[in-house]
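User: Please write out a complete single-protein record containing the residue sequence and its fold in token form, without commentary.

AI:
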Amino acid sequence: MEKTFIFGHKKPDSDSVMSAIGLSYLKNQLGDHTEPRILGNINKETKYALNYFGLKEPEYLNDVKLQLKDVNYHKGFVIKDTDSIYDGYQMMLKEGLTGVPVVKGKKEFVGLITIKDLSHMIVNANFEDLYTSYDNIKRVLKGEEVLRFNDEVAGKIMVAAYRSTTFINTVPLTKDNILIVGDRHSVIEYAVESGVKLLVLSGDAEIKEKHIEIARKNKVNIIRTPYDSYHITRLIPLTNYIKTMIRSYNPTKFEETEFVDTVLDINNKLKHTNYPVVNKKNQCLGLLRITDLNEKHPKNVILVDHNEKLQSVEGLEEANILEIFDHHNLGSITTNSPINFRNMAVGSTCTIVYILYKEREVEIPKEIAGALLSGILSDTLILKSPTATPRDVEAVEELSRIAGVDYKVYGMDMLKAGTSLEGMSKEDVLYNDFKLYTVNEKTFAIGQFFTMNFEEMKKDLDDYIATLDEVAEANHYDFVALYVTDIIQNGSYVIFNTKGQEVVDVIYQMEKTPEGYFVENCVSRKKHVVPLIMEVFEN
């Protein structure tokens, strides 16, 4: 069963992380194979919640771009360097391929043999030399073992083509000769007495017992084959180890984790047909035929707590989006085919996941209840946010009972854990909970940070403004703001990039809105901030 990744947006908050965890558990209980993932560093609040309920932090997912491992390349298609050239040709013929990777030992890649290399060898190579195994010769020649003293055979190929007396009188034989001969007993006797390396008997020729005894004494290997001498001379060079054909030990190869678009870019320059696929240890995994890239299996993903392309993972356009669960306005993500899209006007995606458990009648374990509870309390500010609905209240009441906590006490402790500025840079504060939006081809970004003591941040107001200016300039954002939400005063202080002054003035209908301006009853980015900014850019 293929794995499906479930994840929230790039700047993970408690709702996105916990809804991914909760939904993944539910899906797996229903028989799917899913994993929750995160697209960035989690904040202090989320860490507090994970630790409190003994939950493991999801693994980081860098991208879902297509890799070679997502392609139907020819996995396991390799040949050992001690197999024969003939074996390599037969493998290519059987699979309809024009190349085969050569490996040694534990599949260590040593080279690539192609049909072009084979043609070159047949036309130009020296057919006199043989360096192979006894088994290769016997298999290719469909031979029978008569005598065997060496597993490896090396020497010069000769054919007894002259008259017997002429051959015996004029052709010297040595221990390095491989002789092909038929039922010519005088030549056979001459060969075994000379102690040739290998005697190949053609046409299933008989050999006298006395000649076998001489061969045994002189350690002459003998193979009998049904082929005639002509066919043997054609086939025996192909019994050579395939490694004898390797001309280049360093052809272009790709690791299985390589991105498909990178492979295509390189192939546009090289125009090769075949590429070996290896792992990080240079072990060959198979062969990629460039046309195999047409048969790919995109990664399966489920999105939670977002449906904006800018907020999602790199390479999303190459993935197979199965479902989306969100509680925000409709964004820019599109799909090639219909999907399940659950979008509800509730305060948290975790509430939607809780509803899914109820609909599927799946029991919620204590730690999963704690995860979902944390996401709802975070996004609804312990049910004080105007985004909180009766369904959120219902979910919180049941989840807190299952998790065994007083949600008001636990919620306040969790939010406090997330408001600590200790060890955080100005950029850390901005990116603690940061989202991107697009409207009319314009991009704006809103960060939100919860605090109970804005005075501490106010001392560094100029530094925060400078950070916003840098982020806006570096990323070409049309507007960047940080809303510092005071959960006690039920409002937010707004800090914005210098060039965003006009946007803020229009929103709050002021002539020169000051940095750090306090907006009463502004606690929800989704309801109190984003719609106002979108209206400005739309108009």
